[in-house]
Write a structure and sequence with these properties.
mainly alpha, Helix Hairpins, 2 domains, 84% helix
Length: 116
């Protein structure tokens, strides 16, 4: 039987422990590092989608993981529980889904057919 994965809270605590007091960024630096990692993902998406470089795919996976780690650091820096914030946001989104489906579903389907 497969072992259950870690919760977001467990991953957030793990990231905080790894960085400790010696390696964590100040709040502004943590936020800028997150933006930097997003830019690195965008670069790999360009490599894959525009320049057709297949080797970008595994790099994208690394960048997504870097983004999560950086996001956890931002949450730690500002005292935000990512798990709590995410659950609260999902509940808000659930209430919006019927309107979004009505407004955007047909257009998204067309664009996915065109762009994917």
């Amino acid at each position: 039987m497969e072992k259950p994965g870690k919760t977001l809270s467990e991953r957030q605590a793990e990231a905080a422990a790894m960085l400790g007091d010696k390696l964590n960024h100040p709040r502004l630096g943590a936020t800028l590092a997150l933006v930097e990692e997003m830019g690195e993902l965008v670069k790999e998406v360009m490599e894959l989608e525009i320049y057709q470089q297949a080797q970008a795919r595994p790099k994208m996976e690394d960048e997504v993981a870097d983004i999560l780690f950086s996001l956890l650091e931002v949450c730690n820096a500002y005292g935000i529980s990512l798990e709590t914030a995410y659950d609260r946001k999902l509940e808000k989104i659930r209430h919006k889904l019927p309107d979004w489906e009505e407004k955007y579903s047909a257009g998204l389907k067309q664009m996915k057919a065109k762009l994917d």
